[in-house]
Design a protein that fits this description.
Elements lengths: L6 E5 L2 E8 L8 E8 L3 E9 L4 E11 L16 E12 L3 E9 L1 H5 L22 E9 L6 E8 L10 E10 L4 E9 L3
Length: 191
């Protein structure tokens, strides 16, 4: 359990869109307008100092249907909130952070700011694999050394694909002064 002075944060991102779909002529073309909530969210996070070098960290976040529609369709169509990242962990200044819960894999986080249309219909998640937020994970994030960080995550066997535990790892080099960002990452057997 973690208890610390919380920081409440969030964003409301709503777009008004006009949509036109040109079909092949055998079917009538479609046109309509809509309001869309683009991953609007709110959350609470915190860090509490235990010693001079050790602290607890936590975070919990929800996606909200800011335009008024339900976030999910089908059997859960009454939901106005859905789960996003949620974790608790221990952070050491010299040895890094260990955290557990549900959160983005290190492959997803390795994209940095490359996804220019994040949270919109042109989001990378609709064209390539790797936009995973997974349950039941234990992760380690190293401290940054010469602008480089190593991250390793393991997903418990009960929720991973198949009979093996899932895993995610990344090595990220981010030198902002030089404008250089390089990442190598992978997800394996995550569900």
């Amino acid at each position: 359990a973690a208890q610390a002075s919380p920081k409440v944060y969030g964003q409301i991102n709503i777009s008004a869109e006009a949509y036109e779909k040109d079909l092949d002529g055998s079917v009538k073309d479609e046109e309509y307008t809509r309001m869309l909530s683009n991953a609007s969210r709110f959350g609470v996070r915190g860090e509490a100092e235990l010693t001079a070098t050790l602290s607890t960290v936590y975070g919990i976040e929800w996606e909200v249907a800011a335009e008024g529609d339900d976030i999910t369709k089908g059997t859960n169509a009454s939901l106005d909130l859905t789960q996003r990242n949620r974790f608790v962990g221990i952070k050491h200044q010299e040895f890094g952070t260990v955290k557990m819960g549900k959160y983005d894999t290190y492959l997803k986080l390795a994209q940095g700011k490359v996804d220019l249309f994040n949270d919109y219909n042109a989001d990378m998640q609709f064209t390539i694999a790797g936009e995973n937020r997974v349950n039941n994970v234990l992760g380690y994030e190293s401290p940054k050394f010469m602008n480089t960080q190593l991250n390793v995550m393991s997903q418990t066997q009960d929720v991973a694909k198949g009979s093996k535990a899932g895993s995610s790892l990344s090595i990220v080099h981010n030198n902002e002064e030089m404008g250089l960002y390089v990442a190598l990452a992978s997800d394996m057997n995550v569900d």
